[in-house]
Amino acid sequence: MSWIRLQPQKPGPRRIGGIELQTVSAPRPDSDSLWKVALGGLKGMLGGMKLTLGYVTHPSKVVTQQYPENRETLKLPERARGRLYFVKEENGFHRCTACRICERACPNESIIIHAHKGEVTKKPEIDHYVWRLDTCTFCYACVQTCPFDAIRFDGRFESAVYDRRLLVYNLNDYAGPHDTLARKIEDEEQRASCRTPVRPYEGPVPASGEKLHGIEPLGPPRGEDE
Amino acid sequence: MTPKTLTLQDLLRTDFAPGGGTQEYFVNMGPQHPATHGVLRLLLKLDGETLRQVIPVLGYIHRGIEKICEHQTYRQIVHLSDRLDYLSALANNWCVTRVVERAAGIETNERIETIRTLMAELERLQSHTLWWGVFGMDLGAFTPFLHGFRDREELTQIFEDTIGARLTMNYIQPGGLLHDLHKDFAPRVRAWLKDFGTKVDEYDRMLSGNLIAQKRLVDIGALSGDEALGLGATGPVLRASGVPWDLRRVRPYGVYDQLDFVVPVGEKGDCWDRYWVRIEEMRQSLALCETLIENIPEGKTMLVKPAAKIRLPEGTFYEELETPRGIFGVHLHSRGKDMPWRFHFRSPNLHNLWCITKIAPGARVADIVAMLAGLDLIVPDMDR
Description:
The complex is a heterodimer. Chain A is of the alpha+beta class.
């Protein structure tokens, strides 16, 4: 019969592979009288119960978060990797130059860039910045490598949907030049007309328009166009 | 001393009841069993309730990560390594980073190495708190599970502040770190460490000092030091068998050579020794973190351009380090490109798993759950 007292045993050096290490040994059961064992067992059990009851009587130590009731106050840290988004300047222009560094940095082609050469600017302009949340591993390589700080992650995390195609996003809300390029266009009228609006679920990657049984075909999210 | 391999056909041909007597039968434990922590399938050969043989069957979560790595740049491989043993993601990152840095000749500064060591130690605490909670649950005590997760959650939030991810954090990268430390990091870690010092004592009061728990662990699944070495077991499993092989002391990396700590070892290598070694490791890690958090030097945290291509010279490189579960190694063969030609992980859990074939025969079905919990297995690390 035995009961273990929880003190480290035999502190001292041991040799292994020609190196001397300081070690301690695990306590082992001693042989004790039945009474001591019974008392020890009872003590162990009561100690555990006392601890549990202590938490019952001190509800201030409870750490449970009441999600989803606390959605209004729940804030994820600023570095949280939730949803990718395009950084917008005050004038509504984005910063993406379609340089494709993020596309190359992405480990599994979750970022697909479609660009064209601008008629006025003669520089690459983005058509669709396709981000596939369904294959994204949130490794942060795109944001880390972007030289223009054009994309960032924010703390939106409730991304669950019933259709996989709804996880393929267009991040840019217009096809056209980025901010610094747009500033160089001197003609006010031309600058205003160089942007073509793009919807979040537009682009070549999602099988948009295809009809699945029981699922409405992808289009503009309801409520936005009304 | 390699374990004898048996095919399923061999088993089916065996005589279950030689010369009459009781009949032996097979029971599948897993791949969907709560005590196997994932999709590990154990084929149990039973005689009544006594185990005669255990055959682990793998392959249910094989993702071909090593093959994928051959088509990834060295910077991209890092984020795959934390999909192996997700509870020691940072240690895995560090191992890949170390082999790439050594091969490419990238020098790091003291600040980077200190933060890496601190993060690895915090992750050891995070991993061991989860293990302790799950260990209690496997033995049939549900309360430790909640307590373990409560303490882990605070640490997870600290990581989330700095890194941005909660589980698969790729933070340690070739050339430095993804982010600098968050401004709240040091105060929050200090507060957590202070709080956790009392929590380890609570763990002792709740589970370690309980006679029922002790009776279920002592002399169950004893593994001698020679057997553990022969099976390739590492980490707490090996140390519980009395072999004080801890890479942090034997071949120091990071700033471990400047730190002082004691290696806890067991005597018999039974479940109790494995349990106690991990509990004592928590105390040692706690002291290490308290030292490290006060001694973070100033400096840059990223020394190479994030978008720059890393090319390794031709050759074969190997690095290993001590994760919470044992020795994690990365073996890569480079042919001078920016991607490896062959990439191999030496994962601790695959080797620790085979200890079950040695320690289980003769035990009861209920004991195999305690043994699995004591080995602290992570299935995605075995299958990769």
